[in-house]
Amino acid sequence: MLADLLPPGVVAVESFGPCAPAPLIGDEAAAVARAVPTRRAEYAAVRACARDALEQLGAGRPAVPSAPDRSPVWPAGVVGALTHCDGYRAAAVAHARDWTGVGIDAEPLAPLPDGVAHLVMSDDERADLADVDPALFPERVLFSAKESVYKVWYPAVRTWLGFEDVRVRLGDGTFTAHLQVLGLGVDTLHGRWTTGRGLVVTAVTLAHPPGRHAGAGADEDWSSGRRTC
Q1: CA 8, CA 53: separation in Å to the nearest integer?
Q2: Residues 6+ apart with CB under 8 A from 177
C-alpha cells in the first residue's frame, strides 16, 4: 500500500497482522523500558521495518532510538518517518541530500472518535468533504493527512504545528495541504492517500529545491495524547 503513495527515491517497508518478535538494539530499549508488552512489541516491530528500509536505502541496519521529544533518531544523512496502528506498521526513509522530509501515517478505516472532528478540522474543511464517498471515512483521511504533514514539518522546523495551522483538501487519492504558518520554506505540500485492508494510509514528501541540501530528522505520530512509535 505505502510504496504506491511515495515517489522514487523513498524506500518504504510495511508489515501486516500480529507483531512478529523483533529485537531492540542499542538505545532503543530505553524508550519502552517501562512499557506494557504490547507497546514494547509494536515499538520493536516498527523498528524492524525501519531497519529493513534503511538497509534497502544502503544505510545499513542501525538502531533507531527515540530522542527526548520521542521522535525517532535516524542515522546521519537520512530522513524518515514511522507509523503504526493495530495490525499494521511501516517505515519510510530517504536520503537527506535529496529530501527535506517524509511523512507517513496509518489509521483504522473507521470514523474518528466522538468529539475529535471539530478539534482537527475547520468548518470549511468539513464542508469540502461532502463530495467524498462517506464509506471512505473522509474525516479520518483528512486527520491522517495532517499527521503526515506534521512529520515533514517537525523535523525541519522543530516547532509545534497545530491542526488549525494546516488546511487540507482531499482529491481522488491525493491531497493538498496549505500551511497557514511560515517555517518550512513552502506553503503547500502535495500528498497521496489510499484505503484497504481496513486501513487509511497517507504519505507526503518534500524534496529539496535544486541546489539545496539539508540535514536529517523525522517525527512520529502527532496528537495531544498522540501515539509515538
Answers
A1: 14
A2: 145, 146, 149, 166, 167, 168, 188, 189, 190, 191, 204
pTM of the model: 0.92
The C-alpha atoms of residue 43 and residue 170 are separated, in whole angstroms, by: 30
Given a cut of 90, is residue 98 above it in pLDDT? yes
pLDDT digits (tens, 9 = 90+) for 59-90: 999 999 999 999 999 999 999 999 999 999 99
Question: Do 188 and 50 contact (CB within 8 A), yes or no?
Answer: no
pLDDT-derived band at 222 (thresholds 50, 70, 90) equals very low
Q: Is 77 inside a domain boundary?
A: yes
- How many CA atoms lie within 13 Å of 149's alpha carbon, on the beta-carbon side? 30
Query: How many domains does the chain fold into?
Result: 1
Task: Give the SS3 label for residue 5.
Answer: helix
Say yes or no to pLDDT of 198 above 60. Answer: yes
Is 46 within a domain? yes
Residue type, 172: D
Listed in sequence order, the residues at least 6 apart from 53 whose beta carbon sits closer than 8 Å to its beta carbon are: 11, 12, 13, 80, 91, 92, 93
Domain encompassing residue 152: 2-206
Question: Among residues 101, 71, 107, 64, which one has the least CA distance to residue 87?
Answer: 107
